[in-house]
Amino acid sequence: EAQVTQNPRYLITVTGKKLTVTCSQNMNHEYMSWYRQDPGLGLRQIYYSMNVEATDKGDVPEGYKVSRKEKRNFPLILESPSPNQTSLYFCASSLYRGIAEAFFGQGTRLTVV
Amino acid sequence: SQQGEEDPQALSIQEGENATMNCSYKTSINNLQWYRQNSGRGLVHLILIRSNEREKHSGRLRVTLDTSKKSSSLLITASRAADTASYFCATVFSGNTPLVFGKGTRLSVIA
Known about the structure:
The complex is a heterodimer of chains A (113) and B (111). Chain A is mostly beta strands and 113 residues long. Chain A has strands at 4-7, 10-13, 19-25, 31-38, 42-51, 54-57, 65-66, 76-78, 87-94, 103-104, 108-112. In chain A, a hairpin with a 2-residue loop joins strand 5 and strand 6 (54-57). Chain A is globular, with a radius of gyration of 13 Å. The interface between A and B is medium-sized, with 26 and 26 residues.
């Protein structure tokens, strides 16, 4: 089954404690991206990757890092989480950027206290 | 980023009625996509309509695109309680740009 898998689904952490949210897709997609979703603000892109070892900033990259060492994996790293990063996070992949449908993971609800 | 804007923000209808949601955007697009999100879960792609297309259908879904008015509409016919969700339009401004999402329309279908 074609899918994007994120882990964990829920995470509560403390300010400053480094964390990683994993994302994996099994569709051999080149393009992967991370979004955060906040009430009243909709979905905003954090980082994206056009292919292995090719990552770039989206609209709200501050406080986040990503890596793309393999085509299927695109982890999101918060080196020093802060309460304003409390949000619902989604990983997405598509065959190409923009011109093909995007497949989304189930989301990670992160709370930073 | 330029976002599409959905209208209305919230819509409540009875089961069996039709639901219409609109999306307006500001600049020329390559394509426009509609997604559904059940509460707190991942988005699911519904339809992609290209700038040279005017209408597309998928089951009970009908999407129209009017590039002269820079607007699109999503019609769900004979709605069901299971259609209760948020619906987002996402615009793509050129062939190699990311999806830009609107803030969504929250649809409630009452049985």
